[in-house]
Design brief:
two-stranded antiparallel ribbon, mainly alpha, 13 helices, 2 strands, globular
């Protein structure tokens, strides 16, 4: 069994926390009676949530997947995709069905958002990602991030082949594809959500972990930290998406390095590992929980100090409900139907 890279847990937990604070700040800023929440919403050259932290999360997803599964043989593909399915969809379906039931009970109509064919987008986890093209649909949770992650997982076996046989060419193609987004209006989807942009981040994570010995060298970490400070605190007037991509890369290096030391602290280690474990549940729950908690204070003009207390309540509620969702997910995966599916999909064919 491979050695656990605890910096992965550190980065996942940090990303989950920042994305929650980012969306909390967004609600405060767009709610007139609330004070603008000043933490982790924007920085000198970009925004924390929509691109920067999500890009880091794609990098860590690519890195951890490549570390644990550097090669996907055809005979192993069935097991690989089944494992990914179990990690994403049961929790997604449970939470979505609860929210859908609640909505249907409220409006008294099964297909309240029009054509039921759009439920297929939800079935495949793509309703958030495809909202730019198919609206209204039946999206509740997962945002665009979930659909992008599913597409990245589908591409992963091909990416492992590219890493072994054409890593320089693949890197150049992805960089060229990203650059081309500035010279074409072919895609309806925004540049930061384009699959090419997501693939580039995911691929960089794979590259970084392939050569992970350099990730803890001060010759890399110090320039990355300096770059991060400049991008976070000093407006450069450059293209925002480019700045956010470079910020994500710099912070990935810094977080990986810092995580090696933070995770040596016993009690901190336990909490961060747990936070990393429930990070997907946190991503699914955050918007729903946040909306319920924050809008309970719609009749109040909150100060920043009061908003901080509300944020703590949001985190507490998310952690409790994430724990519940994890328990329900384990129970569902332990049922007879899933055991049968495990027996069929879960075993790789012999060579």
């Amino acid at each position: 069994m491979k050695e656990r890279i605890e910096s992965f847990d550190f980065i996942r937990a940090i990303c989950a926390w920042i994305i929650v604070v980012y969306h909390f700040a967004d609600i405060c800023i767009t709610t007139p009676q609330f004070t603008n929440f000043p933490f982790f919403y924007t920085y000198a050259n970009g925004r924390w949530g929509e691109t920067t932290v999500v890009t880091i999360f794609f990098m860590i997803s690519g890195a951890s997947l490549y570390y644990n599964h550097p090669v996907i043989h055809l005979r192993d593909a069935k097991k690989f995709f089944w494992t990914r399915f179990k990690g994403i969809f049961p929790m997604f379906y449970m939470l979505w069905l609860f929210l859908y039931y609640k909505q249907v009970c409220g409006v008294k109509h099964l297909f309240y958002n029009g054509n039921p064919k759009y439920l297929l987008l939800t079935l495949f986890g793509m309703d958030g990602y495809m909202s730019y093209r198919y609206t209204p649909n039946y999206y509740f949770i997962g945002e665009w991030f979930l659909g992008a992650l599913i597409l990245l997982y589908l591409c992963y076996p091909l990416l492992t082949w590219c890493m072994e046989h054409a890593k320089i060419l693949t890197t150049l193609v992805l960089l060229g594809g990203f650059a081309s987004l500035y010279f074409t209006d072919f895609f309806m989807i925004s540049k930061e959500r384009n699959l090419i942009t997501c693939l580039l981040a995911f691929w960089l994570g794979m590259l970084f972990i392939r050569y992970r010995s350099i990730l803890t060298k001060w010759q890399l970490v110090i320039p990355a930290a300096v770059c991060a400070v400049i991008l976070l605190f000093f407006p450069l007037g450059a293209d925002m998406l480019l700045c956010m991509q470079f910020t994500s890369i710099a912070l990935f290096f810094v977080f990986y390095f810092v995580g090696n030391y933070v995770m040596k602290i016993k009690y901190v280690n336990s909490f961060i590992r747990y936070s990393s474990k429930i990070s997907y549940a946190v991503f699914l729950l955050q918007h729903v929980v946040m909306s319920e908690v924050i809008h309970a204070f719609d009749n109040y003009a909150l100060t920043i100090k009061q908003e901080l207390l509300v944020l703590l309540a949001v985190f507490a509620a998310i952690y409790v409900l994430a724990a519940v969702l994890m328990v329900l997910n384990r129970a569902l995966l332990g049922t007879r139907p899933f055991q049968v599916l495990d027996a069929f999909f879960g075993k790789a064919k012999e060579a």
